[in-house]
């Protein structure tokens, strides 16, 4: 099974900060990497698929990059509504797997 | 476009339970459907997928041999039959649609999610 290691597991940031979250698969997954945002008590929301393709309606301050074994989710200027937990997920090979999550909270 | 889960509840260890996910607003037979779960205070865990044509099904190692995913095209419903339930199966179970219509064997990303149904395994 492909393991996804997300880092950091949590971070504190201020509104306007640039935030970067990393996801490292245990093997090469090309660009089969997706990112989700989840707020407490809500289902996750797909932000980015195929490593860098922004979903319709997702603000452009979110971006994804990377391929192979090193991926990044970047929020260019953190907004109040961005405080949430973020997960990466691989769709290269079943069983599909998620990273452990990164909780972004207010500094 | 929506998916709505039902069937959760409290069940004793070793007992079965069946979850349902009713979809609307899109053509059920064109999309792979997934189940994803989240234990209280924990992260997301993918559980199972059924391909858009129903021919291919894949499971997480933790549920393989105990859970079965199936679908009813005539009713646009996907099911998760759970047997031999364990304490560690306690979680919110989400149904999710795959991003890509007429996609591959095991899907891709999950773009439409339900609100989830809680399953508690406890004696």
List the helices and strands and how they pair.
The complex is a heterodimer of chains A (107) and B (123).
Chain A: E1 4-7, E2 10-13, E3 19-25, E4 33-38, E5 45-49, E6 53-54, E7 62-67, E8 70-75, E9 85-90, E10 97-98, E11 102-106
Parallel strand pairs in A: 2-11
Antiparallel strand pairs in A: 1-3, 3-8, 4-5, 4-9, 5-6, 7-8, 9-10, 9-11
Chain B: E1 2-6, E2 9-11, E3 17-24, E4 33-38, E5 44-50, E6 57-59, E7 67-72, E8 77-82, E9 91-98, E10 110-113, E11 117-121
Parallel strand pairs in B: 2-11
Antiparallel strand pairs in B: 1-3, 3-8, 4-5, 4-9, 5-6, 7-8, 9-10, 9-11
Characterization of the model:
The complex is a heterodimer of chains A (107) and B (123). Chain A starts with a strand and ends with a strand. Chain A is mostly beta strands and 107 residues long. Chain A is globular and about 35 Å long. Chain A is 0% helix and 50% strand. In chain A, 34% of the residues are buried. Chain A has strands at 4-7, 10-13, 19-25, 33-38, 45-49, 53-54, 62-67, 70-75, 85-90, 97-98, 102-106. In chain A, strands 2, 4, 5, 6, 9, 10 and 11 form a 7-stranded mixed β-sheet that branches. A 4-stranded antiparallel β-sheet of chain A has the order 1-3-8-7, with no helix packed on it. Chain B has no helices and 11 strands. Chain B has 123 residues and is mostly beta strands. In chain B, the strands form 2 sheets. In chain B, strands 2, 4, 5, 6, 9, 10 and 11 form a 7-stranded mixed β-sheet that branches. A 4-stranded antiparallel β-sheet of chain B has the order 1-3-8-7, with no helix packed on it. The relative contact order of chain B is 0.32. Chain B is globular. Chain A binds chain B through residues 1, 32, 34, 36, 38, 43-46, 49-50, 55, 87, 89, 91, 94-101, and chain B through 34, 36, 43-46, 49, 58-61, 94, 96, 99, 106-111, 113-116.
Compact summary:
The complex is a heterodimer of chains A (107) and B (123). By secondary structure, chain A is mainly β.
């Amino acid at each position: 099974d492909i393991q996804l290691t997300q880092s950091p597991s949590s971070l504190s940031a201020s509104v306007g900060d640039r935030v970067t979250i990393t996801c490292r698969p245990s093997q090469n997954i090309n660009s089969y990497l997706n990112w989700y945002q989840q707020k407490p008590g809500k289902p996750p929301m797909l932000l980015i698929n195929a490593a860098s393709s922004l979903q319709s309606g997702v603000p452009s301050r979110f971006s994804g990059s990377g391929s192979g074994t090193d991926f990044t989710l970047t929020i260019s200027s953190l907004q109040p509504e961005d405080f949430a937990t973020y997960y990466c997920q691989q769709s290269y090979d079943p069983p599909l797997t998620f990273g452990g999550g990164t909780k972004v909270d207010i500094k | 476009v929506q998916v709505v889960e039902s069937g959760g509840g409290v069940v004793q260890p070793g007992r079965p339970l069946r979850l349902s996910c009713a979809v609307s607003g899109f053509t059920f037979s064109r999309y792979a459907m997934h189940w994803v779960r989240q234990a209280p205070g924990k992260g997301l865990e993918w559980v199972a997928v059924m391909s858009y044509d129903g021919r291919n099904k894949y499971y997480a190692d933790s549920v393989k041999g105990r859970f079965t995913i199936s679908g009813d095209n005539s009713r646009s419903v996907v099911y998760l039959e759970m047997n031999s339930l364990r304490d560690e199966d306690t979680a919110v179970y989400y149904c999710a649609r795959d991003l890509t219509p007429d996609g591959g064997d095991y899907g891709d990303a999950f773009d439409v999610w339900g609100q989830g149904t809680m399953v508690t395994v406890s004696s």
